[in-house]
Amino acid sequence: MAGLDYLLFEEATGYAIFKVLIQQDDISSRSKEVQEASNDLAKFSKMVELVSFAPFKGAAQALENANDISEGLVSDYLKSILELNLPKGSSKKKINLGVSDKNLGPSIKEFFPYVDCLANETVQDFLRGIRVHGTKLLKELQEGDIERAQLGLGHAFSRAKVKFSVQKNDNHIIQAIALLDQLDKDINTFAMRVKEWYGWHFPELAKIVPDNYNFARLTLFIKDKASLTDESLHDIAALVNDDSAIAQKVIDNAKISMGQDISEQDMENVATFAERVVSISEYRTRLYQYLTDKMNTVAPNLTTLIGEVVGARLISHAGSLTNLSKQAASTVQILGAEKALFRALKTKGNTPKYGLMYHSSFIGRASAKNKGRISRYLANKCSIASRIDNYSDEPSTAFGQILKKQVEERLNFYDTGSTPMKNADAIKEALALSGDLDEEEAGDVTAVADSEEETKSSKKEKKEKKEKKEKKDKKEKKEKKEKKEKKRKADDDESPKKKKKKSKD
Question: Locate the Nop domain: which residues (predicted)?
Fold first, then answer.
């Protein structure tokens, strides 16, 4: 086995290159001694020797290099350090370099083909020992420097990972849609309780005003039904969308109501609870407006195409807009129907046609036989819209409008058979609408889209030719088979006659 020659030690203060004095052949037979020596500076200093230590110039450079290492990339600073301190090798004589992260190995190999990177247990034992005796081995550092650098880099690295982005901050969308769904359930439950509770006093009101929010507001205004007079008509009408007929009906029914009388203490409790229902309903309205604004900022094209609520649910279910943009259209189509999918695969039944997308108006407008087809087409357009939203620098609704138009035309095509818009024309129109297209680029885009259409049409023609050939071959085989069967029957009919003639002779 080839020996371990050098070690790369990444520290918050800088990069260090160590030369291994005891080769891997010796170490592999006594790895326990390496682990024991990690805690003993006298023994460990005989196993490794510091070649070079290159400290970072500041916290910004340390953070930049830490980000590169976490992604398995070789920065220019690290490249220069390795180039200066590692001896030149060749294809025959290679250098073995120990690294802590195995993902960093292939990147180093790209710049230094003669370097083989190892990240096995022995390397980790060495690096552990260097980490323990770092202050003694890296002589330029003072006591406490490493701890302070690690703390500062740890905070900066964590801050950079969760930094706030105005354009791509979809965490608030995920929380808002979850809260919106919870509020809908709570408002229904609480409103039902208000109706049941106040129904003992004024049972007819629930049938006259079925809306939960308006019912709770009327409960707060009316309280004791005996207090209602004809003068209250305008006030009640204002609470029921200025409908004077309903307001008059409320007053008339209050006079002949079958409900029981209610004490002031009981009414106070009913009113307090009704106030909560009203306040939660009003907060729900404000939250929906907030979600609408947030969706138009983060995912404008997806919002324009499929709506704020369905778009937000897709983002929430996928985990983020980035995750949604990475998923295939077939996955987007059945997001939210995973249980049904796995059950269908297990029982070998029909797989679901849609998940969360079922709530889209496009699915509702399609006929029963076309729901699956429009769902597949809509998922394709949603996938495109989410990718545009995620990777575009400036938010725009141009593509969302054109994609929505395409879905509308596809729905019309299923019903009437009229030819829908081609992708080439759709792309050209969207780019022109967003103002990012000049005449020369328009020609290029159209040419690319036209070539795609030609490829599709040629594939379709080939498929049709193949199907025709298969049908023709199948027909010929059938005819041959029928001829053979006729001939066999004829032979079977002739054979008894021959036998009879022979017997007569």
Answer: 298-416
CATH architecture of 6-162: 2-Layer Sandwich (3.30)
Q: What is the pTM of this model?
A: 0.62
**DSSP state for residue 336 in the 8-state scheme:** T
CATH fold of 172-292 reads Helix Hairpins (1.10.287)
pLDDT digits (tens, 9 = 90+) for 85-114: 888 766 667 888 888 888 888 888 888 888
Give burial (CB, 10 Å; 0-12/13-18/19+) of 307.
middle
CA angle in degrees (0–180, nearest 5) for 439-442-444: 115
Least confident residue range of 90-94, 260-264, 310-314: 90-94
Residue 310 near residue 360, CB atoms below 8 Å? yes
CA distance 456 to 267: 71
CA 156 – CA 140 distance, rounded (Å): 24
What is the assigned CATH class of domain 299-434?
A: mainly alpha
Q: Which of 141-150, 277-286, 298-307, 470-479 has the lowest mean pLDDT?
A: 141-150
Within 8 A by CB and 6+ apart from 199, the residues are: 205, 206, 259
* Rounded distance between C-alpha atoms, residue 449 and residue 378, angstroms: 20
